[in-house]
Amino acid sequence: MSSIDYTKSLATLLRESTHEAHDQVAMSQGAKLLLSGGLSKEDYTRYLMMLWHVYDLLERALERHATNYSLEPTYNPALLARAPSLSADIAYLLQVDEGSWKSHPIHVQLISGSLSPLEAYVRRLEELSKSSDPSALLAHSYVRYLGDLSGGQVIRHTLAKAYNLDESTGLGLSFYAFKELRSSKPANQGEMKRIKEWFREGMNTAGERGVEVKIAVVEEANTAFKLNAGLFELLDRNWEAQKETKNEKRVVIEHGQPAERSYPLSQVVAVIAAVCLSHFVLTVGGFTGDKGYQKLLAIEQWFASIWQQASQ
């Protein structure tokens, strides 16, 4: 960090110092799957659920410190808040009421599994929220909101096509929709650019409060990118295999070791006798010509009936 010129504006410092971290996230396998619409609809819904947990905590932390000198210039929940939109999109994708998606099996499986990257993300936000100086939360606002205003808009059409969502209604896609800076109208691309400019100006205002703010935010921004990279790693997880493994473990826990299926001795003897007799008939019976073929069919039917009785 000693090579960083902290006389520059905070927005410039963040752009220059996080370039490498940003590229690493963008080139990850999980990011590629998301950007290409390559996730299954269920996995995409899981991703939105993970984002909801992040935004819910981040936005509650920002609300708690709304008057903090580093956070106040960019605090505008009516414009930026994403947690409500995520909740609406998740409910739409699952076709459930918005108040009930947290009890959906997909979400229950998600939060009951081993999600170290998500847990680390949430834990870090909690630490900053409880800190005597929560200035570093600005780094998380920067990484998340400017990403949503930029890259998030690029994939909106791809996701609509991948998951059969109607862009004209915006249902299931509200996470990527913003209102105008000065009104409640939907923001177009030009307005998105103005919102980003407003956000950068707010960051620069915060940075003018002292070099210690710049240092804290720049250092935390790289941490924020790493935490986001962790979420993308979870997108490459085989959730179906994990679910099957959990189900197998649950059977063992609840019922003990599965018992091997056994058959009465009489059934075993019947099957063996049927096999031996069939072999004898096939060997000496002379299965040639039409008459032989009819004899073979009869034997097959008889053997099948014996096997079925023995297996019941």
Q: Please tell me the overall pLDDT.
A: 82
The proportion of residues in beta strands is under 5%
User: Which structural class matches the secondary elements?
Assistant: mainly alpha
Termini separation comes to 74 Å
The rough form would be described as globular
Biggest sheet record: none
Tell me the CATH architecture of the largest domain. Up-down Bundle
* CATH-level-4 superfamily name of the largest domain: Heme oxygenase-like
The CATH class name of the largest domain reads Mainly Alpha
**Number of self-contained structural domains:** 2
Number of strands: 0
CA radius of gyration:
31 Å
The string of secondary-structure elements, in order, is HHHHHHHHHHHHHHHH
Extract low-pLDDT stretches: 244-263, 265-293, 295-300, 302-312
| CATH fold call of the largest domain | Heme Oxygenase, Chain A
Helix percent band: 55-70%
Number of helices: 16
Outline the structure in words.
It is a single chain. This protein is mainly alpha-helical. It folds into two domains: 10-240, Heme oxygenase-like (Heme Oxygenase, Chain A, Up-down Bundle); 267-310. Helix content is 69%, strand content 0%. It has 16 helices and no strands. The chain has helices at 10-17, 19-26, 29-35, 41-64, 77-80, 83-94, 105-112, 116-130, 137-149, 151-154, 156-162, 189-207, 211-235, 239-255, 265-284, 289-311. The longest helix has 25 residues, at 211-235. Residues 244-263, 265-293, 295-300 and 302-312 have low confidence and may be disordered.
